[in-house]
Amino acid sequence: MDFDITWMLLGLPIAFALGWLASRLDLRQLKIENRQAPKAYFRGLNFLLNEQQDQAIDAFIEAVQNDPDTSELHFALGNLFRRRGEYERAVRVHEHLLARGDLDKPERDRAQHALALDFLKAGLLDRAEAALRKLEGTHYEEEARLSLLAIYERSSDWAHASEIAVKLGSDNNNSGSFSTRQAHYLCEQSSVMLAAGDTDKAMQSLRLASALAPASPRPLIEQAKLLQQSGQSQAAFESLLALDKFAPQALPLAAELLVNIAQKPELLMPVQTLLKAHYARRPSVDVMQAIARLSPDKATGQQCYLTHLEQEPSLVAATKWIAGEEWNDPDRYKLVQQALDKATVPLMRYRCAACGFEATQHFWHCPGCQAWDSYPASRIEEL
Question: From the Swiss-Prot or TrEMBL record, what is one GO molecular function term (predicted)?
Answer without folding.
Answer: iron ion binding
